[in-house]
Structures are given as C-alpha cells and as structure tokens.
Prior knowledge:
This protein is an all-alpha fold. The chain is 70% helix and 1% strand. It is built from 22 helices and two strands. Strands 1-2 form a two-stranded parallel ribbon.
Amino acid sequence: MSDVGRTRAGPRAGPRAATSAATSAVASVAASAVTSAVASVAASAVAAAVAEAHRNEWAFVLAATVHVAGDVDTAEEAVQDAYASALATWGARGIPDRPGAWLTVAARRRALDIRRRAATAARALPKLVEPDDAALGMPGLEDDAIDGIRDDRLRLIFTCCHPALALDAQVALTLRLLCGLSTAEVARAFLVPEPTMAARITRAKKKIQGAHIPYREPPVSELPERIDGVLSVVYLIYTTGHTAPSGANLMRRDLAERGHELARMLRTLLPENRDVAGLLALVLLTDARRNARLDGERELVLLADQDRSVWDRAAIDEGIALVRESLRVRRPGGGQSRFALMAAIAAVHDEAASWNETDWGEILGLYDMLIDIWTSPVVRLNRAIALGFARGFAVGLAELDELGADPQLARYPYLAAARADFLVRLGRRADARIAYEEALVLTDNETERAFLQARLDASSIEPR
C-alpha cells in the first residue's frame, strides 16, 4: 500500500481516545451553554433593574436634570441616554447600589454635554430655568458626589400642572414627564392617535417656554390653589384608570396604578399637607375594592353585591388613618379639603360590614358638607343617590329628576342608570326600561354596557 493510502486510512482511534474526545466535546458544549445561560441571566437582571429604575426613579432623575439642562426637551434626551447607557454599563460593571443616583449623575453629565455642544444655539433659545454657576461646572459630578443632588420633583409637578396649560395638556405632560410613559403609551391611555398626542405634548412644552412658565415651586400665597390643581390632575388620572371611559375592560390598571403612585409621591414630598393626605386616602379606600369589582365571568359587580372579604384591609386601614389626619386640620379659611370629605365617604362604605349596614345618614351629611365647598354636578348626583337610600327612593328619584335639567349631566350615563335603579325599586318597570335604554346609549365601556343590558333584560321580566 502506498504512503498516500496509509495516510488516508490512518490509525484507527482506540475506544479510550474516542471517549476522551466525546467527553471533551460535551464539556465544551456544556461550558458554552453555562456561559450563555449566565450571560442571559445577567442581561435579564440588568434589564429588570433598569426597568425598575425607570418606574421608580424616572421623575426624580428627570426633575434633577431639568434643573441643569435648562429646558425639558434637553433633560428628556439626557435622561433617555442615561437609561440606555445603564443597559450597557451595568452589564459590564455591575448594577449600582443606588441606581437612581447613578442615573441622575449620568443624565446631568449628558445634559451638560448637550448644552456645551450647542452653546451658541442654546443662548438664543428661551430657557425654562437658568442654572447657577455651580450647576454649570458640576464639580460634584466628577467625583460622583451624588448625595447633594436635590429632589426637584415638586418643581416638575407644578410645572406640568401649571394653570396656564389646558387640562388635557397637564395630564399628558404629567404622564409623560413624571410617570415616564412614552408618547405612544400616553396616546393609548386616552385613545387618541400617537401623532395627535405628540403634537399635544409638543404644544405644551412650547407653551412652557413661550409663556416663560417658571420651573419652581409656587409662592406660599399661591400654594393652596396650585396644589388643588395638581391633585385634580392626579385624581383624574386615577379615576380614568379605575373605570375606563370606553373599551372592553372595566379598568385601566396601568393608569390607576400611575395615579396611585403619583398620590403617594405627593404624600412623600408634602407630608404635612392635609389635601394631599386626603387624596391618597381617597385613592387607597377606593382601590381597596378593586378585586371585588368583577366576578369570575369578568362581569361587573356593584358595591352592594361585592364580596367584602377580598377587599384590601391593609389599604383600608391606611386610608382611614389618613382620613382622620386630613380632617383634623381645616384648610386656610376654615373649610375642609374636598378630597378628605370624599375619602371620608369612601371610608364609611369600607367600614360597613355589609351593604345593609351602611350608614347612609352619615354619608348624606358628608355630601352636604362637600357641596358647601364644591358644587360639582356629579357630587350633587351622588348626594341624590345617598338621599334615596337614607330617606326613601321616591325622595331620591325626585332629586335625580331635578338634576336631569342640568346640561352638564345631560349625557352623563350614571344619572340615567341611577334613575333606572330607583324606578325598579319603586316598581315602575316600564319607566326603568326607558332609563336603562338611555344609559346604554350613553355608555361606551363594554363591561358596563353588558351590566346595563342585563339589568334592562331583567326589568322586562314581570315579578310573580
């Protein structure tokens, strides 16, 4: 046999050599798999840490960066860059002990870099704030001295909710800047196209610059009125999530949670303010019932029929303590906080062992106090319902009928639904069916529509 032939044939590998090669290959594959798995776990941990920091620290980081950047757009760009940098840096160097502080330093550095690169243009643009000389130099950032970074979230809150801005713009800016929602997420929250919401947010930012709305906390003389405006925006965000105006789901948990988080943030920033305590109490006492609002078939369950054993007792206890705190001190001028009074009404419901044990007399008295300071048509509607349960359905129905002449309630579905309920209780089923049909026409939430349709069908069945 030729040498070539012998080379092709080669020596046959023995069993031991073959086993060793196979073991080596398996070990290599296993090591590669372990390395890949470890890298995947590490990447997942970093992504989770960044996501948590985005949810918990966004407002703090952005507010601190606006103070340095000079305008909201530059601050937003810098903060977004900081979060993107965290994904890469934390994977290589490890997740910092204080993610929010790391992100704040990174964002402020980036903001200064943006300003330096566009110094000529920046001097020609109107500024939201003018940083002081120390801020421009930022000596503390060079050695990561982060403990002195101020909490500017109150400045940001009051800027987003400035009365010079339209209410829809205040809500959009609050969700975008304080909650960190993307423009697309804000648009989905309020069922408008993304370009429409983008334009709304852009107009609001331009209004802040053009009208020279200051990036500061209001003076003491303006504080009560300005805080009330902020609380109204936060409560609107919560209530829009608690019962969605339209769509297939009863609730928008994302919005309700954002409202809850904002109320708690305000409580942290303004711990002595009784209005803030009242708002947080109202949110807690209302949200405590969320797990009982739908049954196993995802159908609406009214308060009267809810399983109270699944209510969140810890939230109720915290809410009741805040109600007592809020009612203890009257607002300037001697009145009570409207949020504290609404929370007190919610507390009466939450403390009742059953629907039949609800103290309607106390609820009616609280509504009377609320109307003295806030003549909202919806409050008057709720008072009429309480009046019906406290003094008789005929009395309550008469009050509801009077409210029907209010143009602000002309297309409010809960007025028609309340009338239908009282009419059924009074045995006037034909009139109740008309009222239920009206409520159905005015209701866009599909869960509520299904409930009203079931009530309409039931009202068509004559009792034996």
